[in-house]
Write a structure and sequence with these properties.
It is a single chain. By secondary structure, the chain is mainly alpha-helical. It has a domain at 39-136. It contains six helices and two strands. A two-stranded antiparallel sheet has the order 1-2. A hairpin with a 2-residue loop joins strand 1 (43-46) and strand 2 (49-52). Helix 2 packs across helix 3 and helix 2 (18-39) runs antiparallel to helix 5 (92-114). It starts with a helix and ends in a 5-residue tail after the last helix.
Length: 143
């Protein structure tokens, strides 16, 4: 697993302008909240136990987050749990609309301000690093 500081530095290289950072500070949490909100509605059976796809996504993401930085991983688990219940309370149509709006914000930030492709196009792990990077801005754990 890569070092969190190296991943943050690589991710930050794609997010240098104030406009792009602003769009990401709103768009990434919006995408995360609404993706969880939509996946809450997708039930799966794991070993005879019914769970939903949001739980599975959170567990997989948390494994990566804890491996990258256990402190941020714990904070992200709290955020993910809150998003789980909030996203489940939002109607599906609104989750879908806000999910699309969040992605529009991301691509506007990159096309209008950054003039550079999103980081996840070169490293898919950045799809998980982005939320952690935003969280570290709010709760600075990794310096």
């Amino acid at each position: 697993m890569q070092d969190i500081r190296a991943l943050f530095a690589d991710y930050a290289a794609y997010h240098q302008t104030k406009g792009n950072k602003w769009f990401h500070r709103f768009g990434i949490p919006m995408i995360m909240l609404t993706l969880i909100g939509m996946l809450v509605r997708v039930g799966v059976s794991v070993g005879g136990v019914r769970v939903d796809a949001a739980m599975l996504l959170i567990v997989v993401a948390e494994v990566v987050y804890v491996m990258l930085d256990w402190r941020l991983g714990i904070v992200m688990l709290v955020v993910s749990a809150a998003f789980y219940f909030l996203g489940a309370a939002i109607p599906l149509w609104l989750n879908a609309a806000l999910f699309v709006a969040g992605w529009i914000l991301q691509f506007l930030g990159h096309s209008v301000y950054e003039k550079k492709s999103p980081a996840f196009l070169t490293n898919a792990l950045h799809l998980l690093v982005g939320p952690l990077w935003i969280l570290n801005d709010v709760v600075p754990v990794v310096k």
